Structure to design on (563 residues):
């Protein structure tokens, strides 16, 4: 068949398909829920029309028709492919993810999460303990200028006078979001270096946090430091450990891909890892909120702050152990 | 299939192969620069407005910076047909490896892993990764199973210089046709001698047409035939 005859015979199909694609793409750009008005009876014949375009593309290639025609059909088929196969599956909303998806994910990935927690909280507690016996050890970990800064931040005498206004709370909220969530993301991303990056960032943070806490406690500033950090500690510290766990997933896939190629193992692992990161980022957001608006209140007695802090730890543990279990067993998953 | 073409082929359930022209580092770097400029502009605008809010404004600016850096590219890719404004300006689009539009998990993965691609400085590892795999994927693309392609091949017909069409002496395969068209498109930017030299490579085709005509002219006329000019 001559190309000209081929074109005149099927041009109508292609034009109809193209108009439908245009309308469809325009309506999906405006609003996903508004599809109903754009959909006409025409929609039912689209799969058939699409298959015909695909067949025409194959024919045009096989018969060496002109590149322009082949390109046009390729474009049409590609756009059709997008619309027909690119349908967004209904994903869990944020609420569903928080009430069910995330705790289930943590339980499913408990090995790597527990490993990350041990690697984080172990060194952290170790450093705090060591500094109580050998306070001079701090000078291996931090330089004196840094220590002076922390010392002035948590000086019990100075703090009685300082009262932070609401505006500087907002400022600190921004700072914690910018800084802490970024640290979480970096802890995760560097896992791509066979997990070593995540491990180093995790250990570095454990040592630094342990050093500051241990030092302030050893010089007797514990009475201002511990009430300040107790509120947000549960979410912030655990989220950093979870970020590292997500990074270990990436590294683990590269080190031990099992029966898959390294590339496919990485793709599979990052699908889990990115969901861990959704959760970690939300936890860090919560921690930033608490740290900015609750932790700095000096007026609240320490025992309340400690109880709230311990309460958050207990809640978090209960959440990871029990949330989302019921439906999971109903669906047999 | 053309050996030197950077197009990726994906199979569809209909048993045909679709060709996606993969985008290289230069176009993507340019797109990134445009995005960077846009993000900077937004951030500066927010900072100017926020400066009226005093200390709280500093917080607002930092939150904006966070969103622009980490979520803005992913949000654009999911909600604006696979392209950030920079990518859109260069006609690029992010797709899953199977050619379907990119969704949140993949968009977030590739944008979180941008951190690693950026190391040791200015996308060093990203560029390295792009150069050693077939599809110009940076590390984030490898993990997220995504690919950056050109939205649409540009229509050729316009760029071919006008000349009376001439039928080639034999039926040409698709990539041969493409070679003739590419030559005709570029002929304007070549010196006459170089164009002639290149055109003579296609000696089996040159038996057609009048003898006094130059080889380049013949190929341009054939290109006119191939795009269907009358």
């Amino acid at each position: 068949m001559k190309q000209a005859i081929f074109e005149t015979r099927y041009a109508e199909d292609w034009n109809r398909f193209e108009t439908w694609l245009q309308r469809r793409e325009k309506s999906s750009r405006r609003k996903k829920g508004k599809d109903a008005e754009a959909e006409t009876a025409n929609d039912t014949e689209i799969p058939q029309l699409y298959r015909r375009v695909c067949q025409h593309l194959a024919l045009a290639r096989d018969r060496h028709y002109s590149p322009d025609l082949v390109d046009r059909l390729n474009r049409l088929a590609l756009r059709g492919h997008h619309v027909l196969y690119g349908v967004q599956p209904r994903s869990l909303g944020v609420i569903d993810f928080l009430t069910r998806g995330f705790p289930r994910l943590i339980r499913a990935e408990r090995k790597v999460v527990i490993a990350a927690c041990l690697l984080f909280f172990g060194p952290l507690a170790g450093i705090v303990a060591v500094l109580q016996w050998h306070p001079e050890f701090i000078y291996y970990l931090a330089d004196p200028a840094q220590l002076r800064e922390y010392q002035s931040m948590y000086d019990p005498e100075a703090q009685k006078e300082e009262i932070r206004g609401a505006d500087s709370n907002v400022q600190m909220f921004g700072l914690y979001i910018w800084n802490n969530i970024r640290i979480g993301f970096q802890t995760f991303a560097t896992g791509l270096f066979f997990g070593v990056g995540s491990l180093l960032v995790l250990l570095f943070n454990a040592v630094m946090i342990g050093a500051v806490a241990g030092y302030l406690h050893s010089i007797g500033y514990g009475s201002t430091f511990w009430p300040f950090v107790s509120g947000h500690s549960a979410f912030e510290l655990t989220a950093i450990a979870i970020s590292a766990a997500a990074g270990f997933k990436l590294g683990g896939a590269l080190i031990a891909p099992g029966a898959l190629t390294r590339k496919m193992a990485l793709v599979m692992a990052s699908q889990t890892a990115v969901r861990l990161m959704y959760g970690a980022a939300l936890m860090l957001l919560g921690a930033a909120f608490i740290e900015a608006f609750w932790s700095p209140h000096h007026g609240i007695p320490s025992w309340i702050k400690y109880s709230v802090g311990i309460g958050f730890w207990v809640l978090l543990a209960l959440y990871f152990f029990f949330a989302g279990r019921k439906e999971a067993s109903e669906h047999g998953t | 299939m053309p050996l030197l073409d950077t197009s990726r082929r994906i199979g569809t359930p209909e048993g045909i192969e679709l060709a996606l022209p993969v985008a290289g580092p230069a176009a993507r770097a340019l797109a990134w620069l445009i995005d960077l400029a846009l993000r900077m502009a937004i951030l500066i605008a927010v900072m100017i407005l926020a400066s009226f809010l005093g200390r709280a404004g500093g917080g607002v600016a930092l939150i904006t910076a966070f969103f622009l850096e980490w979520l803005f590219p992913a949000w654009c890719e999911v909600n604006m047909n696979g392209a950030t404004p920079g990518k859109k300006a260069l006609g690029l689009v992010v797709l899953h490896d199977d050619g379907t539009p990119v969704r949140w998990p993949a968009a977030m993965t590739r944008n979180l892993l941008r951190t690693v691609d950026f190391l040791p400085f200015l996308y060093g590892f990203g560029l390295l990764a792009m150069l050693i795999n077939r599809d110009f994927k940076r590390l984030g693309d490898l993990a997220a199973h995504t690919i950056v392609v050109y939205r649409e091949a540009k229509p050729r017909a316009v760029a071919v210089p006008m000349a009376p069409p001439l039928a080639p002496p034999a039926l040409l395969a698709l990539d041969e046709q493409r070679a003739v068209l590419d030559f005709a498109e570029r002929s304007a930017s070549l010196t006459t001698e170089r164009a002639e030299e290149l055109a003579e490579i296609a000696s089996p085709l040159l038996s057609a047409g009048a003898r006094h005509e130059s080889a380049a002219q013949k190929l341009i006329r054939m290109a006119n035939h191939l795009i269907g000019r009358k």
Q: What stands out?
A: The first helix of chain A runs from residue 3 to 30. Confidence is low (pLDDT under 50) at residues 31-41 of chain A.
